[in-house]
Design goal:
Layout: H1 2-41, E1 45-50, E2 57-65, E3 68-85, E4 91-104, E5 122-125, E6 130-140, E7 147-158, E8 164-173, E9 178-180, E10 189-190
Antiparallel strand pairs: 1-3, 2-3, 3-6, 4-5, 4-7, 7-8, 8-9, 8-10
């Protein structure tokens, strides 16, 4: 009798394990299905930098850097940021961070600190719509021969699901060109 009871208990344990596996599989499928719905319906903000005129306007002068410290040489550029929502639902732009640095072609790309470069929030962007904003970016120093400006922009936004998202883009610039840094994957992302 005890042997039969033990076999019965073992059989029940095996059936419970099998049912647990089935339940876990169903839960994973439901989670993946929910994620697919969110991904299909979410906002997707893509961004690009452009010009207001045919040339990039780079002003060189001397000032305090973001109002702090002594006067020093600075470079200022004004560029156009365009955000487009390629998703099916609105996006709320929480912050736009942007920074420009003077670098040379031998420089190793670094993650920018984005100090002092918060350009604030922006109005929501409806599905399929776009908005533009002028960015005035300041960096220390003046460009020398063989150097260029490296621009990095980070857009923080959220969607109707309350999920925080981010779009990152990087560009190189001189007086005549504004070129996406597609070779630097960490500077060109949409999450």
């Amino acid at each position: 009798m005890a042997l039969r009871t033990l076999r019965s208990i073992n059989k029940q344990v095996e059936e419970m394990k099998a049912q647990t596996i089935v339940a876990q599989t169903a839960a994973n499928a439901a989670r993946l299905n929910a994620q697919a719905v969110i991904d299909a319906e979410r906002a997707w903000i893509f961004a690009e930098l452009g010009l207001y005129q045919e040339r990039i306007r780079i002003l060189q002068g001397s000032s305090t850097f973001y109002g702090e410290g002594p006067f020093e040489s600075t470079s200022i550029m004004n560029i156009k940021l365009t955000l487009k929502n390629h998703g099916k639902t609105p996006a709320w732009i929480d912050a736009i961070h942007a920074q420009v640095d003077i670098v040379d072609s031998a420089s190793i790309a670094r993650e920018p600190a984005l100090d002092g470069g918060n350009h604030g929030p922006m109005q929501p962007i409806a599905a399929g719509a776009e908005r533009s904003r002028s960015l005035e970016l300041t960096c220390r120093g003046h460009r020398n021969q063989g150097e260029f400006l490296s621009v990095n922009v980070v857009i923080d936004y959220h969607d109707i699901f309350g999920i925080n998202r981010q779009t990152v883009l990087g560009y190189s610039a001189d007086e005549a060109n504004l070129i996406p840094q597609f070779g630097l994957a960490e500077r060109n992302q949409n999450t």
